[in-house]
Design brief:
Order of helices and strands: HHHHHHHHHHHHHHHHH
Protein name: Major facilitator superfamily domain-containing protein
GO molecular function: transmembrane transporter activity
Radius of gyration: 21 Å
Strand content: under 5%
Number of strands: 0
Number of helices: 17
Helix content: over 70%
CATH architecture of the largest domain: Up-down Bundle
Membrane topology: Multi-pass membrane protein
CATH topology of the largest domain: Growth Hormone, Chain: A
Number of domains: 2
Largest sheet: none
CATH class of the largest domain: Mainly Alpha
Pfam families: MFS_1
Distance between the termini: 23 Å
Shape: globular
Keywords: Glycoprotein, Membrane, Transmembrane, Transmembrane helix
CATH superfamily of the largest domain: MFS general substrate transporter like domains
Length: about 450
């Protein structure tokens, strides 16, 4: 049996009975011990090995890159829409009311994983992604006719969030199935598309807003985006040599097995770590421009910090994925989480524009890998029959953090000032690092191995 040496721990196993319940093929002790001694994480043995490369596999990654650059790049451009709403359509609404549109988008993206993840396990990628692409078209068209707050909340809050979930989970699940030893790098390349989109789309949206107005901006974006998304749907596909997406066969997942997959302690612990990481990580993105303005930097220069941060995260996602495949995915995730937390602690001392540029670039570099490595770590301790389910459950754990982090930090800012915001965000991320390391130690069987 080949040893999978692509990370740093194996799935936590309390006894032989639990192993038999959650794994369709018995694990081998010899390969596990070898992986532990090398400081790498052991993959659950699947009935069919991942291709781990080849033209078709990298086309899936390319399709994922197009998907993330289009769908999630525009999600990162929500700030442009929010500025327009506050000065035009929703002029008389309080700021915190307007921000709920973006919060609902993110919350639904995370919580929808409970349903879309298992649907991917059952039906495969295309049967979910193609309707998601057309829902993308529908949501923009509906937004173009929105004149009231509830119109915008439904079209750009609920529809955007659900359609992004229909595009995210099948893409992440398919890439995880195609790759094993290069999984972190492949996911990093694909998800880096969202960072590049986050740089490009706000500039495009601002230009179209100025020339065409709100309604036609949404209609142009609707038809401009559906074409690359359909290309992505054609490229993203799970491997053909698997039967787990057979919609005509008997149901593959018994409720008892699903329960065992969700309730494994190591997995729950890692999901909890992602809750804290997401809650703390999003706060700098939400407050970056406002904090810069509070230090005397004008709004135009402050908004440029987002592009710099996304540029840093593009590099960070690819480099961290490459390093994780060689030094251990849990090891690298723990390391970059600790560094991101330390950076947030130091944020309060950053008070000049050039210092802000250096800080946001560094934060983007080290926070960029948190999302793709989260999915890679889940895949590392998961039987591929349940990859959609487990990624969906992990993201559902993140949903409350994504919804509450910004309002809580807003209250802290009012009562305790910026120092309180920075301390809260850094503490949440550091808690995530501690829990990630604990999950890593559980998988190593208590063996203190640091790659």
């Amino acid at each position: 049996m080949d040893t999978h040496d692509s990370s740093d721990i194996k799935p936590a196993q309390n006894d032989d009975t639990l192993t038999k319940l959650i794994s369709p093929v018995p694990t081998t002790a010899s390969s596990t011990v070898g992986a532990e001694l090398q400081g790498h994480l052991y993959d659950p043995v699947s009935d069919i090995p991942a291709p781990d490369g080849g033209l078709r596999a990298w086309l899936v990654v390319f399709g994922g890159f197009i998907n993330f650059a289009t769908a999630f790049g525009l999600m990162n451009a929500f700030g442009s829409f929010q500025s327009y709403y506050k000065t035009h359509t929703l002029l008389h609404q309080p700021v915190y009311v307007v921000t709920w549109v973006g919060s609902v988008q993110l919350f639904l993206l995370f919580v929808s994983g409970l349903f879309i993840g298992p649907a991917y396990d059952r039906f495969g990628a295309r049967r979910i992604m193609i309707p998601g692409a057309f829902l993308y078209l529908t949501s923009f068209i509906c937004t173009s006719f929105a004149h009231h707050y509830w119109h915008i909340l439904l079209s750009q809050g609920f529809l955007f969030g659900i359609r992004n979930a229909m595009l995210y989970y099948p893409t992440a699940g398919a890439i995880a199935e195609w790759f094993d030893k290069k999984r972190g790098f492949a996911l990093g390349i694909a998800i880096s598309g969202s960072s590049i989109g986050g740089i490009v789309w706000p500039l495009i949206v601002e230009k179209i807003f100025c020339k065409m107005g709100f309604a036609w901006t949404n209609r142009i974006l609707a038809f401009a985006c559906v074409c690359p998304l359909l290309v992505s749907c054609g490229l993203v596909k799970e491997p053909e040599n698997t039967s787990r997406h057979d919609t005509h066969g008997p149901k593959l997942k018994l409720p008892r097995k699903i329960f065992k997959q969700i309730c494994q302690f190591q997995f729950i612990l890692f999901c909890a770590s992602q809750f804290f990481i997401v809650m703390g990580m999003l706060i700098p993105f939400n407050w970056m421009a406002l904090y810069a303005q509070s230090q005397g930097i004008n709004s135009a220069m402050a908004n440029n910090l987002f592009a710099i941060c996304y540029a840093g995260s593009t590099v960070g996602r690819m480099v961290s994925g490459w390093a994780a495949d060689r030094l251990g995915r849990f090891n690298i995730l723990t390391l970059i989480t600790v560094i991101a937390s330390v950076l947030i602690f130091t944020w309060v001392k950053v008070d000049t524009y050039y210092a802000q540029i250096i800080w946001v670039a560094a934060f983007g570099l080290f926070s960029g890998g948190l999302v793709p490595l989260g999915s890679a770590c889940v895949a590392q301790i998961t039987d591929m029959n349940y990859i959609g389910l487990r990624i969906g459950v992990m993201m559902a754990f993140c949903a409350p953090g994504s919804l509450t982090g910004n309002p809580v930090s807003g209250l802290i800012q009012v009562h305790l000032g910026w120092r309180g915001v920075h301390f809260f965000a850094a503490s949440m991320v550091m808690m995530g690092a501690v829990l990630t390391f604990w999950a890593r130690m559980l998988g190593a069987g208590g063996r203190k191995v640091i790659a």
